[in-house]
Design brief:
three-stranded antiparallel β-sheet, mainly alpha, elongated, Peroxidase, domain 2, 3 domains, about 5% strand, binds protoporphyrin IX containing FE, about 500 residues
Length: about 500
C-alpha cells in the first residue's frame, strides 16, 4: 500500500518514492514499469473527495445488508458524481481525463504544485497559476472547469531523480510511454496467471516476455526406463536424488503459479547458489545427471524428477514394497538469458521444514512456516504429514542434520518417524537449539528433534494423521500416500500437460 497523502499521511514525495519502490517491487515492477503504471493509470479518471468524509457510512463488511456489499455509502448527499467521497482526494490529473494522452506529464512538468487540502480534508497538491484551458472539465457539468490534482505519489514521479529521468523520457516520447504502459499493464494483470501455457484465446501476444518465466517444450519420446536405469547405476544416494528433485520442485507457488521443477532452473543463477539448495551437493548431483540427460535426449528437468522417483522407488524397496512412481515426461530446460534473476530472488526458500531447515532464526515459528510452504505447494494437512514423515527417514534433511530422523534404517521408506513420534516409551525435552527424545525408562537420549518434528505429535489434528501412519497395518497405505503426494509436488507446474 502506498498512502496517497504521504508515508503516514506526512507529505514527502521522496519518502513516498521509497514506498512505491517497495510496493511495486513486490509485484516485480522496476522503476520504468512503476512510473509507466502510475502515469498511465492517472491519465484517466479522477480522485473523489468532494464532501465531508465523516458522513460516510460503515465499511463494506460492517454496512447494512441492503447496501449489498458496498461500503462507505454517503446517505447525507447524493453520494455519486461530483458528490462522491472515496479516497478524500479531489480532482482529475489531466485536462481530458477520458482520453489516453500525455496530459498527465504535460501538467506535472508545466506547473509548480503546492500542498493544499481537499474539501474532505486530505493532503493533495494543486498547480500554481494554472491557465483556464488546462483545467479539467467537471465530471458532470462540462461547462465548469475544476482544479487538477497530484497526490504525493504523483509528485514522487517529478521529484525523485530516478523516476523523473524516466518521466522526462516519457514526456518527450508518447509512443514509447504508451508501449511501456501497455507492457506494464499486461504484466500487472497477467503475471499471477503463471506460464504462457495457461493463456487461452485469440489475444495472447506472440512475443515471449521474460516475466512469463519462459520454458521451451521438452522431449517426450525418449526411453524412460533406460534413463532410470542409468540414474540407478550412477552411484547417487537415495537422499541426494530425493533432495535434489524436491529442491527443484519446491519453489512452486500456488499463489502466482511461478517456480517448480519444469525448466530445471535449479541449475541456473540464482537458484544454483541458494543456501537452501546446498550448492556443493547440488553441483555434484547435476554433474552426474547432466550427461544422462544429453545421452538419452531427455530434458535436464525430467531427469532431475526421474532421479527423485528412482530414489523413492529404491527407498520403498528397502522397506519391502515395490512401487512405480508415476511420471509425466515433457519438461523443458529454461535458459539463463530467459531467467529474470532479480524476480527469481524472491522465490528463494529461506526455510524448508520438509528438509528440517531454517536459514536463520525467525520471529515466526518454524511450524507456521511449514504451513506456508505446504499451502504454496497446494498440499493438504495429510499430504504435508506423509511427506515430512517420509522425507525424514530418507535422510533428506538439509546439511545432513539428524533432527527428526527417528530411525536406524535411513533410506528405507518406513513409518519409523510416526511410530517413534507417537510411542509413549519416548519423552520429549527442550534443550539448547531444539529438543531431545529420551527413553522414558532409562533416560538415555535416543534422537534430537525440531519444533517441526514435535508439532506432528503435539497438535491434535496432526497427531491424528501421525497415529494413522504409525498404525502397524498402514505401512503400505503410507507408501502409497507418500508417492501420491510426492507426484503431486513434482507435477504442480505441468500446465503444459
Ligand atoms: C503509488 C501508486 C498509486 C497511488 C498512491 C494511487 C492513488 C490513487 C488515488 C488516491 C486515487 C483516487 C481514488 C478515489 O478517490 O476514487 C486513484 C485513482 C485512480 N488510480 Fe491510482 N494510485 C496509484 C497507482 C495507480 C496505478 C498503477 C494505476 C493503474 C495502472 C492507477 C489507476 C487509477 C485510476 C484509473 C484512478 C481513477 C479511478 C476513478 O476514476 O474512479 N493508479 N489512485
Amino acid at each position: 500500500y502506498v498512502n496517497p497523502e504521504g508515508v503516514n499521511a506526512q507529505p514527502d514525495p521522496l519518502m513516498t518514492a521509497r514506498d512505491m519502490r517497495v510496493t511495486f517491487g513486490r509485484m516485480a515492477m522496476n522503476d520504468e514499469e512503476t512510473v509507466a503504471l502510475t502515469v498511465g493509470g492517472h491519465t484517466v479518471g479522477k480522485a473523489h473527495g468532494n464532501g465531508d468524509a465523516g458522513q460516510l457510512g460503515a465499511e463494506p463488511e460492517g454496512a447494512e445488508i441492503e447496501d449489498m456489499g458496498f461500503g462507505w455509502v454517503n446517505k447525507t448527499s447524493r453520494g455519486i458524481g461530483s458528490d462522491t467521497v472515496t479516497s478524500g482526494i479531489e480532482g482529475a490529473w489531466t485536462t481530458n481525463p477520458t482520453k489516453w494522452d500525455n496530459g498527465y506529464l504535460d501538467l506535472l512538468f508545466k506547473y509548480d504544485w503546492e500542498l493544499v487540502k481537499s474539501p474532505a480534508g486530505a493532503q493533495q497538491y494543486a498547480p500554481v497559476g494554472i491557465a483556464e484551458e488546462d483545467m479539467p472539465a467537471d465530471a458532470e457539468d462540462p461547462s465548469q472547469r475544476r482544479m487538477p490534482v497530484m497526490t504525493d505519489a504523483d509528485m514522487a514521479v517529478k521529484v525523485d531523480p530516478g523516476f523523473r529521468a524516466i518521466a522526462e523520457k516519457f514526456a518527450g516520447d508518447f509512443d514509447y510511454f504508451s508501449d511501456c504502459f501497455a507492457r506494464a499493464w499486461f504484466k500487472l494483470t497477467h503475471r499471477d496467471m503463471g506460464p504462457k501455457a495457461r493463456y487461452i484465446g485469440p489475444d495472447v501476444p506472440a512475443e515471449d516476455l521474460i516475466w512469463q518465466d519462459v520454458i521451451p517444450a521438452g522431449a517426450t519420446g525418449y526411453d524412460v526406463a533406460a534413463v532410470k536405469a542409468a540414474i540407478a547405476a550412477s552411484g547417487l544416494s537415495t537422499s541426494e536424488m530425493v533432495a535434489t528433485a524436491w529442491d527443484s520442485a519446491r519453489t512452486f507457488r500456488g499463489s502466482d503459479l511461478r517456480g517448480g521443477a519444469n525448466g530445471a532452473r535449479i541449475r541456473l543463477a540464482p537458484q544454483k547458489d541458494w543456501d537452501g539448495n546446498e550448492p556443493a551437493r547440488l553441483a555434484k548431483v547435476l554433474d552426474t545427471l547432466g550427461p544422462i540427460a544429453s545421452e538419452h535426449g531427455a530434458s535436464f528437468a525430467d531427469v532431475i524428477v526421474l532421479a527423485g522417483n528412482v530414489g523413492v522407488e529404491n527407498a520403498a524397496k528397502a522397506a519391502g514394497y515395490t512401487v512405480d512412481v508415476p511420471f509425466m515426461a515433457g519438461r523443458g530446460d529454461a535458459a539463463q538469458e530467459t531467467t529474470d534473476v532479480e524476480s527469481f530472488d524472491v522465490l528463494e526458500p529461506v526455510h524448508d521444514d520438509f528438509r528440517n531447515w531454517l536459514k536463520k532464526d525467525y520471529a515466526v515459528a518454524a511450524e507456521e512456516m511449514l504451513l506456508d510452504r505446504a499451502q504454496l505447494l497446494g498440499l493438504s494437512a495429510p499430504e504435508m504429514t506423509v511427506l515430512v514423515g517420509g522425507m525424514r527417514v530418507l535422510g533428506t534433511n538439509h546439511g545432513g542434520s539428524s533432527d527428526g530422523v527417528f530411525t536406524d534404517n535411513v533410506g528405507a521408506l518406513s513409518t519409523d518417524f510416526f511410530t517413534n513420534l507417537t510411542d509413549m516409551a519416548n519423552t520429549w525435552h527442550p534443550v539448547e537449539g531444539g529438543y531431545e527424545v529420551r527413553d522414558r525408562a532409562s533416560g538415555a537420549v535416543k534422537w534430537t528433534a525440531s519444533r517441526v518434528d514435535l508439532i506432528f505429535g503435539s497438535n491434535s489434528i496432526l497427531r491424528a494423521y501421525s497415529e494413522l501412519y504409525a498404525q502397524d497395518d498402514n505401512q503400505e497405505k503410507f507408501i502409497h500416500d507418500f508417492v501420491a503426494a510426492w507426484t503431486k509436488v513434482m507435477n504442480n507446474d505441468r500446465f503444459d500437460a
